[in-house]
Design a protein that fits this description.
The protein is of the alpha+beta class. 24% of the residues lie in helices and 27% in strands. Helix 2 crosses helix 3. The longest helix is centred in the first third of the chain and has 20 residues.
């Protein structure tokens, strides 16, 4: 009789252990509708450190940084090449997946051109520039999660070199 009870108890514990290890179905992630591209300033950029082979200077306007309830860090990145011409992009980083999406681009005139069907792309495939990956590593993401807006700004400010 004692064997039955011990066996039954072991069986109950084993079943409970298997249930505890079975992942609970998480709700499917849904991206928030992104707001229209924000206005930005070229005068108050937080510089982003880029590899030495990148000739553009890159910065993020801190006033454009948002962290959505969907976990997407959105911002405007401004790029200035050696001849002085300026371009910008309104982007989002999904830290949990290591992906970036460009919502809109702006040339020298400052007028936004919305990307018709923006697609998520791996941060490591962000060609021709690696700025989104640098932004994620320098404070845009806290590992695989998005930080709060204020924490993101502080982390980016701490990690930069002097920016003219």
């Amino acid at each position: 009789m004692e064997f039955k009870y011990v066996f039954g108890l072991c069986l109950v514990l084993a079943i409970g252990s298997v249930r505890a290890q079975t992942p609970v179905d998480a709700p499917e992630w849904i991206e928030e509708k992104e707001p229209p591209p924000p206005s930005y300033s070229k005068d108050r950029l937080i510089p982003i450190d880029m590899p030495s082979y990148v000739t553009q200077r890159v910065g993020v306007d801190p006033d454009t940084i948002t962290v959505g309830a969907d976990g997407v860090v959105r911002y405007v990145v401004v790029m200035r090449n050696t001849s002085g011409s300026v371009s910008a992009a309104y982007e989002g980083i999904l830290c949990s997946n290591g992906e970036v999406k460009t919502y809109a681009r702006s040339g020298g005139a400052g007028k936004w051109m919305v990307v018709e069907q923006p697609q998520w792309k791996p941060l490591t495939d962000n060609v021709p520039s690696r700025h989104a990956n640098a932004i994620a590593k320098q404070g845009g993401c806290d590992g695989r999660t998005a930080s709060r807006r204020e924490d993101t700004i502080r982390a980016l400010q701490r990690s930069h070199k002097a920016y003219d």
